[in-house]
Amino acid sequence: MTSGQDDSSVRVALRIRPQLAREKIEGCHICTYVMPGEPQVILGKDKSFTYDYMFDMDSQQDTIYAACTEKLIEGCFEGYNATVFAYGQTGSGKTYTMGTGFDVNIEEEELGIIPRAVHHLFKGIEQRRQAAQEQGCPVPEFKINAQFLELYNEEVLDLFESTRDTKQKSHIKIHEDATGGIYTVGVTTRNVSSEAEMMQCLKLGALSRTTASTQMNVQSSRSHAIFTIHLCQVRVCASDNVSTGSMDEYETLTAKFHFVDLAGSERLKRTGATGDRAKEGISINCGLLALGNVISALGDRSKRSSHVPYRDSKLTRLLQDSLGGNSQTVMIACISPSDRDFMETLNTLKYANRARNIKNKVMVNQDKASQQISALRTEIARLQIELMEYKTGKRLTGEDGVESFSDMFHENSMLQTENSNLRVRVKAMQETIDAQRARLTQLISDQANQVLARAGGTEEIGNMIQGYIKEIEDFRAKLLESEAVNEHLRKNLTRASNRQSLYGGPALLAPEKETSDIIELAKKDLEKLKKREKKKKKSDHEEGEEEEDEEEEEMDVEDSSDDSDSESDEKENFQADLANITCEIAIKQKLIDELENSQRRLHTLKQQYEQKLMMLQCKIRDTQLERDRVLQNMNTVETGTDDKSRKIKAEYEKKLSVMNKELQKLQSAQKEHARLLKNQSQYEKQLKKLQMDVAEMKKTKVRLMKQMKEQQEKNRMNESRRNREIASLKKDQRKQEHQLKLLEAQKRQQELILRRKTEEVTALRRQARPTSGKVIRRVNVPESVQDSTHRPPSGRLYSSGNAAPNGTRRTVGIYSTRIARNKWQSLERRITDVIMQRMTISNMEADMNRLLKQREELTKRKEKVIRKRERLDREGPEAEKAALPLNEEVDALTANIDYINDSIADCQANIMQMEETKEEGDTVDISAVIGSCTLTEARFLLDHFMSMAINKGLQAAQRESQVKVMEGRLKQTEITSATQNQLLFHMLKEKAEFNPELDALLGNALQGNDSVCLEPSPFSRRKTYNKSQAAADRAKVKEIKQGIINPVPPTKSSRSATLQCVHVAEGHSKAVLCVDCTDDLLFTGSKDRTCKVWNLVTGQEIMSLAGHPNNVVSVRYSSSLVFTVSTSYIKVWDIRDSAKCIRILTSSGQVTVGDVCASNTSRTVTIPAGENQINQIALNPNGTVLYAAAGNSVRVWDLRRFASTGKLTGHLGPVMCLTVDQSGNNQDLVITGSKDHYIKLFDVTEGSLGSIGPTHNFEPPHYDGIESLVVQGDIFFSGSRDNGIKKWDLDRKDLLQQVPNAHRDWVCALGVVPGSPALLSGCRGGVLKLWHTDTLGTLGELKGHESPINGISTNSSHLFTASDDRTVKIWRARGGLDSTLEAVDNADEVASN
Predict the structure, then answer these.
(1) pTM for this one?
(2) Which residues participate in ATP binding (predicted)?
């Protein structure tokens, strides 16, 4: 058991509870989806989260326990701490999962984590005791105690204390020991010895826990509960090498297991909590907020080195070990799948996702003696292994003391690898040989069968022949194997004879000499070598004794030095001879073993061959005897026909011929064997020559290896010398760097002292100088200017004589203030962005809650109508007519609910998108900006923060007072209205006594006041729409929606801005999608299916062009003709003839006279077959040609004839935007941007027909679809969904500049500021930015709209922006931006100086 530390991440499990019956009745949809086979959940449409464990709605309690907690209990027996805590919103199933809420009728499969863990704990204790008894070891001792704490309103309470009073302050204290562990003082600890006692303790504490009822949960936990089990274990140390006689060593292990049931995070507006419940909810959220801050500090890699706020809450203090400490931690995040709890589910998933990055330091909890014993045992095992390696020669120690592995070890490992490879190869070759042999046998047998079949043989003879052939092939294989073994043994014999001659033996033995003689000679040589070895050892021993006697007798060092040198040389020679003799002995012993083995194999082969020879001789003798017997029988037989005798004679002659052939074959084989014996001498000569070559090569190899070793030794010496030189140089360099740092510190200290002295001298001079008018004026300067004058930044000095005569600030002050102002602007923008994001998310949440309430009301109403319809159906067929309106009402309600569900899904998608944007924006490190500030800049920022806080507080107070005034007026109006209604009701009631119709009308009115009025959706309006209602609605809209252009009063901040909003055009009821203008007229298209024409001189709406089938997505004006685009149609209006539609152009090239495309009440975009959605239109400068982007092509129209002349093709995706310019030869240059990320250029000459391809494709493309294009002279700009802006050259047709992240969202519109080299861009976030057209440098930005900007248009003096907030804002650039450009250039020059 090791006690080292281990990095262990906090594991996170996600559990999705099933939908409640109430949620199903209210029509709540499931907004979560679990990926099959993956621990991943998808929230909404496409937002995915990945965790360690995933449990869907159908998961069981035992599955969760087995996956999350079972291993932690086993770890407690090994001395590891563990923690399991459940987190989630109220009512998400945390208490059910943990098992702290007890029910009388609870079933076994519904038991939570804690009861199962208790059962597992005591079962493991019993198993370990039984195992120790069976093995004959001492039984381990276990001591278990339990604690149950409750954190209620930031007070730690003891749930085991029955006399506790929640109103009194708790006396429980939280402390930290020397090792960083957390423990509590004053808590009741109960010793437990059985599972029943533990469950009784758990039940007692759970019943004492504080619970209450809220609107979201009937039995809601109002406090955080922590159930802790302490386990102390004394057992015998596990050891591999323990002697039988030694005493047993014991170790003490301790572990604690926290089961944490956190109270659910909740919103007061959803729980409806008031009074104490509200205070409890606030306390719960404060604790969870502190826990979230700790998780963020531990999980965020950029904040890991910063302070972890454990002390912000008692909850985080108690869980300090579990989060970032010594514990194996599992977090179970419980969520609801219903879309009603979408925001709570999203926050829980983000909370759990951060917890996955926490790293804990897990270590075994042992007593000090056990830790020391474990460390010593580990050290002994390591040293034993190292000693074994030294003994086996695996490790070596060089002359310089460097340890390394021996070459023999490396060579052995290589040979083992090669041996395994060869074995695999031999096995594969053997299998191949067997297969080939079987195939050959089959082929030969088939051939023999064919011959036998032609001769008229039977199947039995064929099978017998096949068996013989198979046996022959096996014998042949064995014969070849025996010959190969014989050849190998012969080579070994020759090699042994060569070795014997090499090591001083007799001359080369002839191969015909008997093997026994060779073995005898080898044994004799071995005896001689052993005798020589003994003599050498004896002489070494005598020399050693003589050396000792000489050292005892003679003490003169000078005389003995020479003798010792000579003796050491002789000793080295003897040792070398001894090593050679030992090597020879080993070789001779191996040679003897090989020869004996080969002799045994030869003897075995000889016996086999003799047996075969005897068998053949017996067979020949039997055959001869049979021949003689047959001849004798033929002579003695007197009876018998000639035919029979001839047949017998023929058979025997055939057998005789076969035997003669076999005899001939054997004789030929015998001759071949004799011939081979003759050639054996030649083979032996060749073999001897090859052996000599091999010996020579070995000598060469040894010589080369010696040279290589010498060269390696030289290289090693050179490398060590160079390393020493490098180390000395690095040491000198470190010394120089240290001296340099000391000098720099001294310099900074001297500069600081000098600056202080200079400030003191300056202050004394000012005090000594007489007061003048300039000084009086300088005293009246604002404080910020004085600060910048009196507190210059560090590192810049100035004297009082450098002041300007007019008392202006110095260059240093301007420079410091400019940097501080830039930092303040970045911080202010960041604060504004955060506020806007939170406001947007809050508004979206409010919209989603409103839609959820509407869906709940509609669902209830639908259930009532369905019940009423079912009641009518039970009455009989007579009530069918009465049920028809109910069926229509059910359909309308279903359509309404579907519409609201789609709206809820869109709202959730928008919230997810805003959250992602928020996460991207959070990457801006504000602390880094503040940390880099100097003292002067910090004072500047603090001053502005104070001013900002005062202004915001003042605005909030003014708004609050206005709200109170409006509330008072509203109450007064309600009182007045109620009084008037009451008087009117009494008057009508008096008249109703004489008029029964009026009485019935009053009764219906009273019922109508009690009912709930719901706002119908477009789907319900579609069902109950008639002509009279349409006419009334049109009249109402015409009365209310008369547009007007209102002036915008200039504010203090807008007067100095480079772009000022001067007017706002209001009148559309929905988002404005497009805009076009001249110097006198303004044209706007909207989602309300109208195009409005405005008079810029009078500021009034002139006319409204209605009757579009859907949204008006593009509008253009040319010579009293207005072109509006809706779906796949282009309407041509003549505004001179009271706004009459004279033509309708379609995307397919058809032309219709008059207004045949009527308006449609449906919001669904329906495009006829063969048509495409038209995204944008553009006119050439002459106004004679219209270009319409429909699908992935651009339709070309001749407006003089209102006829389609061709198409511009080449894009792979839909064309989203286009613009038209004119070249020098009067050709139209059409620039198109598509969803396929590419921009293409088309040259269109007048009168061109058919399909026209692009003349150029601009590279590199954007990373997403193109949203806007604008041309300025010989250049043009493009904005894309990838948030970037690119600048292109039309002449060279290449990219000049680009701004990758110009906005934080899609760049939806571009426009050129009139009369200035400036570009205006608008994004989907409502932000407007100004760019210098030459450098693409930022000139300024502002929040133009609260909603996405859809279009920008310009005339000779103003800019117009259309937005989703149903307005068109009119902007004016102040002074042509010349002052801004000059200021930016001057600032850059000052910064460079």
Answers:
(1) 0.42
(2) 88-95
